[in-house]
Amino acid sequence: MTIGIPKEIKNNENRVGMTPAGVFELTKNAHTVFVQSTAGNGSGFFDEDYQNAGATILDTIEEVYASSDMIVKVKEPIKQEYALVKPSQILFTYFHFASSEALTKAMIKSKAICIAYETVENKDGSLPLLTPMSEVAGRMAIQQGAKYLEKPIKGRGVLLGGVPGVPPGKVLILGAGVVGIQAAKMAAGLGAHVTIMDIDMNRLRHVNDIMPNHVVTEFSSEFNIRQRIKNHDLIVGGVLLKGAKAPKLITKEMLKDMRPGTVIVDVAVDQGGCIETTKPTTHEDPTFIIDDVVHYCVANMPGAVPYTSTLALTNVTLPYILKLANNGWQETCASNPSLYKGLNIVNGKIVYKEIAEAFGWNIEAIA
């Protein structure tokens, strides 16, 4: 099979779909890999590294798409790429279709095979290809939140860890999944007082078992959220519904209950965000302010640490890529229940019901 690695062209997306080590494994299995020139530069992997691993370097993104049976990316295709996608071409990447009707319609029109990293699901309900980026984003949420709490960038002027004689800052985390737990670890490590909320009591029990005493758990309800947002300095939105839009846990009206300079980091932005006022931002222009509340809603947070992120992503995607390349998507998905759940759009049909439900469309079964 021919596999293409195009350069990501989303704003400030410095990750790349595969490391040279991944290319080496594919070429060792007699597959041909095309890498767009400079695709890996942002992650610290250069054309020579890919060539030494057995890849062929192509100059343009158009050549990569035209030459490849399977495209391996990090982020969803953007408007400039829609016309490059071919019928029956496999696209393996993060899609987050439920948050973009335009992207969904474009991929339906393309008649490609769209396999989404974020909906590949193990028997225990875990999401193996989303987990590493959720880990990165959860940790970054505190790193970025701490920065934007600084007064020169309109935050409250709070140091999360406090100092002797001064109480630490307060962090509220919505969701005790991978993002929430990683955010709690980072915030706790800085010495902040952390409240983590979820509707799953088993998750909250797990948090209680593994976290220090200054991380407290609370059942998530509108009443409890309304109470906590009044006195917390940093709020992290980390709620995920697999393949579907995130629920809106904080409304625009609730912003008025927050203190001026409170910071919101909505990690769920890729799925529409769990804050009503969320809108996607970029690393180039990461924040906006509504009712004196600072919103950080960068839709590709791990793109700011591309070396770490690209390595972490290839670690988990490569085994699936090898299976797809060796056996084709139909045989691989039929024999691999986890990857089967990654199928989102197949030959012009939506095959993942949460995507159809997000737009009020009827789902069609896989032929």
Automatic annotation (TrEMBL):
Database matches in PANTHER family: ALANINE DEHYDROGENASE (PTHR42795:SF1)
Enzyme Commission number(s): 1.4.1.1
Keyword NAD appears in the UniProt entry: yes
Give the family per the record.
Belongs to the AlaDH/PNT family.
Asked whether the UniProt record includes Chloroplast among its keywords, one would answer: no
The chemistry this enzyme catalyses reads: L-alanine + NAD(+) + H2O = pyruvate + NH4(+) + NADH + H(+)
Q: Which organism is it from?
A: Microcosmobacter mediterraneus
SUPFAM superfamilies with a match to the protein in the record = Formate/glycerate dehydrogenase catalytic domain-like, NAD(P)-binding Rossmann-fold domains
Q: What is this protein called?
A: Alanine dehydrogenase
Keywords from the named record: NAD, Oxidoreductase
Domain Alanine dehydrogenase/pyridine nucleotide transhydrogenase NAD(H)-binding, residue spans: 149-297
The regions listed as transmembrane in this protein's record are none
Please give one Pfam family short name.
Answer: AlaDh_PNT_N
Q: Which InterPro entries does this UniProt record tie to the protein?
A: Ala_DH, Ala_DH/PNT_CS2, AlaDH/PNT_N, AlaDH/PNT_NAD(H)-bd, NAD(P)-bd_dom_sf
What is the enzyme's main class? oxidoreductase
Q: Which domain of life is it from?
A: Bacteria
